[in-house]
Amino acid sequence: MDEPNQFLPRAGLQTLIDRLNHAFDRCLGPVVLDGIVQMRPLSRVEQLPAGHHDHQAPGSYRMTRDDGTRQFDWANGPQALKPLLFTPEEPLWRVDRDDTGRLAFTPHNPMRQRTAVIGARACDLAALRLQDQHFLHGEHPDPYYGARRDGLFLVAVDCSHPTDTCFCASSGDGPGCGDGADIVLTELDDGFLLRGTSDPGRAMAASLGLAAATTAQRQAGRERIVAAAAQQRALPDADLSAVLFARQDHPQWARIADRCLACGNCTAVCPTCFCHRSQEDPVLGGSHSEHLRLWDSCFSPGHAYLHGAHLRESIRDRYRQWLTHKFGGWVTQYGRSGCTGCGRCISWCPVGIDVTAELAALTEATK
Amino acid sequence: MTMANPYLPLSARVLERIQESPTLFTLRLELTDPKAQAAYAFAPGQFNMLYLHGVGEVAISIVSDPTEGQVIDHTIRAVGRVTHGLAKLRAGDHLGLRGPFGRGWPMGQAQGRDLVIVTGGLGCAPVVSAIEYVLRRRDDHGRVNIVQGVKHADDFIWRDRYDRWAAHPRTKVLIAADVGTPLWPWHVGLVTELFDQLAFDPKHATIMMCGPEGMMRAVARDMLAMDVPDRDIWLSMERNMHCATGHCGHCQLGPRFVCKDGPVFSYDEIAELLQVKGL
Ligand code: SF4
Ligand code: SF4
Ligand code: FES
Q: How would you label B252-272 residue by residue, b for 16+ Cβ within 10 Å and e otherwise?
């Protein structure tokens, strides 16, 4: 965070986009499509959502536009980095069977596109660090995730416009960017504070030939981040892991289950959820078959299938799995909660279930 | 970055198929690539992912002895799509195999101690591997107690195998059926009702079990009551498994991944989780 800041005038952003498109196979950035912020191929600075603002609330996501010129005055869209590395559907290998019945297994090459992304948020970086731990730092590193992760270059942007559903300040992950980016930007009215935060990032920053930021500019940047830390929602101040594992019989679980549709939206938009299932796509005739993996959710009925039965039969059991894993199990598995405070699961829940409110209810001293 | 691909099965061949009971069968496999076969090593209690062409993978415990790594035995119950398909394989047929995965039985800890090996239900493969392993190294252990429970006396198979086990020195085999028949020679009731016949020193024993979770809870409860430390009680757990590498999330039991933290756990690691329904 104490990297020296340079100043990138707003007009210079196009140069950065050009450099990234030149240095990488593709450059993605935030674009408003179908009324939501989405990561799409970015070549022109005009594609960025200048003057667009998101208004998120439990069960709702809406965008408005004014004549503002700031390009990052919004919080987030339904997806950020997760689908780029841990893809929603991916063939892992194929198997061929010859006339004698012998099998030959051939791995698919992971798509090795080297990708630069502009507009990752602090919560996205925190989620990326967790997904790296999960997919890369265990006993069996995932070569498909690893190949794409290797070619990823991130230009993150400090958050200046948290929305009502955000609580990254209380999860400890934002609004200022933590580790994991190559370049971090702080948006000011007339441009950006820019700092390289990795070797490739510093090289890219140096190539832009920018002036150092003035004290006043740096001060303005700090103030924006401090202001963005004032957020409506927060996690209860408690050892959530201990509370959740101790309260698996709490009546609140059944009350949540009355509302929860078990649709799995929360797990699909959550930037840390890693569950997936395998699927077989055999060709007619049986000479070969594709082995795929697809995103799965602990809300899907087959998630806890065992010997013809479902261990988590009720929605209560499944919601309890989701919340207990996210805020409890992760702490044992990865040393911290699996929630980075992005608020997506709140906005994209069709019935507006709010994890912060449910955690508060579960934490209350009296049951 | 080039990484080994933990998802890619090796090609394997069925050497022999043994029908153990109407729903239980054993596949004896060898890897088709001699190099892979020579490199293959496992520990008792670990499992493989077996892949049936065009259908998918399933986690199956290895029952053969680690010193005979060239022939890898799996005793399988036909209960789901993949296992019903595996049941149709015959000698010479091909399938895929990846593994071994997971943490097996604490064979190091068990050395020199009395053992109590308990299973409920039939053909519980993880426990069979432990028994065969121990009896082949009979002198490494103290007294051995094998306790087998079945639901119905008619379910009992492998009588000759139990006779063979019981013929070992300082080895006791105790059998119980929830529901007996007129000629059933053993106990009618729960396995835990046989525990007063066990020959073991609770302070210097290793308990190993697999089977229905209700049974394992009851066994653990009674063992604790007999002053067996919780760290000496070991359970082989089962959960849905898709990846076996700790990535897919299906096998989670509370904060534990059964595929990589287990499948064998000591009771102190999961005691609280076992008390919660629907985890
Ligand atoms: S649990 Fe909800 S708020 Fe937390 S990281 Fe996941 S989607 Fe974001
Ligand atoms: S178990 Fe549920 S909460 Fe945990 S990673 Fe999987 S889908 Fe997400
Ligand atoms: S089987 Fe996939 S995480 Fe354990």
A: bbbbbbbbbbbbbbbbebbbe
